Amino acid sequence: MRKFLVLLVTVVTLGASSCHDGANQKLVIGSKFFTEQVVLAELLAQHVQACAGVPVDQKSNLGGTLLVQQAMLSGKLDLYVEYTGTALLAVLGDQATGDSKTVLERVREEYSRRFNFVVTEPLGFENTFAMVVRKEDAQIHHLATYSDIAPLAPQWRPGVGYEFLERPDGYKGWTQRYGLRFGKTPSVLDLGLLYRALVEKNVDIVAGNSTDGLIEYLGLVALEDNLHYFPPYDAVPIVRADALQRVPRLRGCLADLAGKVSASDMRHMNMEVDAQQRDVTTVVREFRATKNL
């Protein structure tokens, strides 16, 4: 009887230990509140679960940059995808100087020092802000660059997301750099409604993203940042250092994704979700198959 009790205690202890280890290894992946971020969170979740063999929870559409950053700091999230220029200006409050490599190294150094976060290798594409107009306006007024819209600005109403209106690399700095004096107050819209407002002529120019699939799908035109106002915005997974300690295979799994997602890949996935209304999980699964992930 005593041997049976000892064996029972051992089994229960081992079972509890196993459950505890499994809970410790669970990863929580988050995203901001627009389509591309939801797609990238799904990409991380599918790949990490398959590669590292650990359970994954997703917390998508959490909000803007600073809300996701706070969730990381509090330990509610373990990893998500950020953009280097956003990290540099909006989170670190640094200056927008340097090429992609310089900005990446600066962000990597400061995120480690200040937050104990590890900035891994870029996924392979940049998503910069894109000022987008209707094709007919671009043709009629011969618009190709941001500078070209200066004569039209007094008659135009811009449409922007709330974060672009408020952030240091956003609306105020952009209009000052290009000498743009819009005659109407910007319409602040949900990011998912920007292009609809442009097509329906409720606004005349919108601050979108360069990898938005709807730009090409709707026949819109993204203008060129000819004065190079915006810094590099390379997409890069950011992970808490303690998550890498809990799940040792995680570092290698994230390294698998380095350079695997091109700008055209990202535009295509965004278009599939936004324009074709396809399921995010399916779109990402198909993309992973094309990359042998």
Structure commentary:
This protein is of the alpha/beta class and 293 residues long. The protein contains 14 helices and 10 strands. It folds into 2 domains: 28-126 and 233-290, D-Maltodextrin-Binding Protein, domain 2; 129-222, Osmoprotection protein (prox), domain 2 (D-Maltodextrin-Binding Protein, domain 2), CATH 3.40.190.120. A 5-stranded mixed beta sheet has the order 7-6-8-5-9. The chain has a 3-stranded antiparallel beta sheet with strand order 3-10-4. α4 (84-91) packs across α5 (100-115) and α13 (263-274) runs antiparallel to α14 (280-290). It is globular and about 55 Å long. The relative contact order is 0.18.
Can you describe this structure in just a few lines?
This protein is of the alpha/beta class and 293 residues long.
Please describe the structure with a list of short key phrases separated by commas or semicolons.
single chain, 293 residues, alpha/beta, D-Maltodextrin-Binding Protein, domain 2, 3-stranded antiparallel β-sheet, 14 helices, 48% helix, globular
Treating each run of at least 4 consecutive H or I residues as one helix, how many helices?
14
Q: Would you list the SSEs in sequence order as H and E?
A: HEHEHEHHEEHEHHEHEHEEHHHH
Radius of gyration: 22 Å
Number of strands: 10
Structural class: alpha/beta
- Percentage of residues assigned to helices: 40-55%
Fraction of residues in β-strands? 5-15%
What global shape is seen? globular
What is the CATH architecture annotation of the largest domain?
3-Layer(aba) Sandwich
**Mean of pLDDT:** 92
Largest sheet: 5 strands, mixed
CATH superfamily of the largest domain: Periplasmic binding protein-like II
